[in-house]
Amino acid sequence: MIDFVWKVFCKTGSIDTYLLMKEMEREFEAEASSAEEYAAEEQPTV
Fold first, then answer.
1. How far apart are the first and last CA of the chain?
2. Which pLDDT tens digits describe the chain residue by residue (46 residues)?
3. Where along the chain do its domains lie?
């Protein structure tokens, strides 16, 4: 999805589109980070 937004930005030069892409990147990174934390918590300790 981010690739599509980037292509739209490249074609239009719209700052709003660029800001949308950056917001989507931050959301993706936050989700990935929380998923990693969850996975680390779920591993059994020996």
1. 40
2. 889 999 999 999 999 999 999 999 999 999 988 887 777 777 666 6
3. 2-32
The percent of the chain in helix, strand and coil, each rounded to the nearest 5, is: 85, 0, 15
Two structure tokens written together for 3: 């690739």
pTM value surpassing 0.70? no
Residues 6+ apart with CB under 8 A from 31: none
Write b or e for each residue in 32-46: b if 16 or more Cβ atoms lie within 10 A of its Cβ, otherwise e. Answer: eeeeeeeeeeeeeee
Considering only CA atoms, which of 17, 28, 15 is closest in space to residue 7?
Answer: 17
